[in-house]
Amino acid sequence: MAKCDVCNKDHLFGSKVSHSNRKTNRAWKPNVKKIRIIDNGTPKSINICTRCLRSNKVTRAV
């Protein structure tokens, strides 16, 4: 599922609008990566969006 475990960012819904102004449903999904982090001294694998990853909201495991 495209959901960030840190900030709970989820997919958004909207309309795709064609040149002739016809509207169909579409979804925007966040850019989510699966990485290993250090949580209370133990390594753990989570799904995190790239914005949280870039902002250093977690400590990556090496």
Strand arrangement, major sheet: 1-2
The termini sit apart by: 25 Å
Percent helix among the residues? under 10%
Query: What is the fold named in CATH at topology level?
Result: Ribosomal Protein L24e, Chain: T
Counting H and I runs of at least 4 residues, what is the number of helices?
Answer: 1
Overall pLDDT score: 95
The global form is rod-shaped
- How many separate domains? 1
CATH level 1 name: Mainly Beta
Number of strands: 4
- Determine the CATH superfamily: Ribosomal protein L28/L24
Task: Give a quick account of the main beta sheet: strands, pairing sense, barrel closure.
Answer: 2 strands, antiparallel
Gyration radius over CA: 16 Å
Protein name: Large ribosomal subunit protein bL28
InterPro entries: Bacterial_rp_bL28, Ribosomal_bL28, Ribosomal_bL28/bL31-like_sf, Ribosomal_bL28_bact-type, Ribosomal_bL28_sf
Family: Belongs to the bacterial ribosomal protein bL28 family.
GO molecular function: structural constituent of ribosome
